[in-house]
C-alpha cells in the first residue's frame, strides 16, 4: 500500500478527530439506559509490531484506528507491543532491530509513550503519529509533528527517551514477545484473547466481535 497523500501537517490534526465518540453504536436496556461494557468482559486485543515495518505501520494507521471510530474500543483492552522482531545481544545487552538503528529509536519512542501515558487514547494517538511518519519516511520530525501538535508534555517523554528507558522497556517487550505460543512468524502479529489470527489480521474486528460475550454490543458487530 502506498503512503498517505496528505502532508503530515494536515494529517496530524485529523488524528484528533478519531477520538470523538457518540452513542450511535451503543446498546440500551428496556428502560432506555445505555448498557456499558464490564471490564472483565472486554476482549484482549494485542498487536505485536515493529515500528519501521511497513505492514505494521499501515495496520496501525489504517486498520487499527477504526476501533476509535466505530466504538469497538469500548469492548477492547488494546495492547500495543513494539520491538516484536528485535533481539538482545546476551554479551552486552544491546538490542538490534530488524530494520536498523532508526527502528530501534522509534521503538524506544513507542515504549516511552506506552509507559508514560497508559491511557489508550493518548499513547495510541502518539504511536499512530509515529507510524504516519514511518510511512512517510520522515521519522526525525517526531518531536514537532507528534508531541507538539498533539499537545503532550515534552519533559517527561524526553526524560524517558534520553535516559534510555525506552530501550530498557524494549527488553521487557522482547521477553513478552518470546512467550507467544505459537511463536509469531511475521508482524503485525495480532492476538485476540490469546489466539493469533495470523494472516487474517486486517479482519480483526470479526474476531473481536465473536469473542465478546457482553451485552454492550457495538453496532459494527451487527454487520460482521
UniProtKB/TrEMBL annotation:
GO MF annotations in UniProt: oxidoreductase activity; oxidoreductase activity, acting on a sulfur group of donors, disulfide as acceptor
Similarity remark: Belongs to the GILT family.
InterPro entries in alphabetical order: Interferon-induced_GILT (IPR004911)
Keyword annotations of the record: Glycoprotein, Signal
Span of the signal peptide: 1-25
Protein name per the record: Gamma interferon inducible lysosomal thiol reductase
